[in-house]
Write a structure and sequence with these properties.
This protein is an alpha/beta fold. The chain is built from five helices and nine strands, in the order βββαβββαααβαββ. It has a single domain, classed as Rossmann fold (3-Layer(aba) Sandwich), CATH 3.40.50. The protein has a five-stranded parallel sheet with strand order 6-7-8-3-9, with helices on both faces. The chain has a four-stranded antiparallel sheet with strand order 2-1-4-5. Strand 4 and strand 5 form a beta hairpin. It is globular, with a radius of gyration of 17 Å.
Length: 226
């Protein structure tokens, strides 16, 4: 099967939008504060980059935004807008509205890439305009679709993670060092996928690699919240 042309496939337009608000948010491990006094509002359709040196807490802030880490002070709230009506979402259910790609997320390596995406679809909807096979073709894994992921190279595994996140039909996309283990062709693919499938989403990228976040409209330095 030949890969679909990215320029001929309409981008998905999820009718649901999500606004994320942090109020005086802080997180610490033991006595060390990772970030404090974060007052920030992430709005739909906008892309943000969380920047800072290695070990500065970028990933911790991203995980707090995802609702997977509890704050030590302040609050985070999620409001869903659909057809002009805004409703709050419980933090335990917000994961249904988010997709995440990160180096620390493990893949089920006994599965094939095709099996993994179909399994993922049981938990979150995938974009309706593409089949699983087309998604794998778009990330250039079509020929390896039936190979167990444990036999993939590190770059191929990262492409699976990107496919799982980018093709999830969710209003929010969270990316932590999304081009880890990718070569120049992989970087180019990453940007094509973001441009084609994610331009209507709220995107947050955690990185200190300018090539990963060059499309982001807003910058947030973690060092401003120490």
């Amino acid at each position: 099967m030949s890969a679909p042309d990215l320029h001929t496939i309409p981008a998905p337009t999820n009718e649901k939008e999500l606004t994320i608000t942090l109020a005086d948010a802080g997180k610490r491990f033991n006595r060390d504060w990772i970030f404090r006094r974060v007052d920030y509002r992430f709005i739909p359709g906008t892309s943000y980059a969380i920047t800072g040196p290695n070990g500065s807490g970028k990933s911790t802030l991203l995980q707090a935004i995802a609702g997977s880490l509890l704050l030590n002070e302040g609050s985070i709230s999620y409001a869903q807008q659909q057809r002009g009506v805004s409703t709050g979402i419980d933090s335990e259910q917000v994961y249904l509205s988010m997709a995440l790609a990160a180096p620390y997320l493990e893949l089920i390596e006994e599965m094939t890439a095709r099996e993994l995406l179909r399994f993922h679809h049981h938990f979150k909807p995938l974009v309706a305009s593409l089949s699983v096979d087309e998604m794998l073709d778009l990330v250039e894994l079509g020929k390896a679709a039936d190979k167990q992921i444990r036999y993939y190279s590190s770059g191929m595994k990262q492409r699976v993670k990107l496919a799982q996140a980018v093709f999830s039909d969710t209003p929010v996309l969270l990316l932590d060092e999304p081009c880890t283990n990718l070569d120049a062709a992989g970087y180019a693919l990453y940007h094509r996928l973001i441009k084609t499938y994610c331009r209507h989403k709220l995107i947050v990228v955690s990185s200190n690699d300018t090539a990963e976040m060059e499309f982001c409209e807003q910058r947030i330095s973690i060092l401003d919240y120490k």
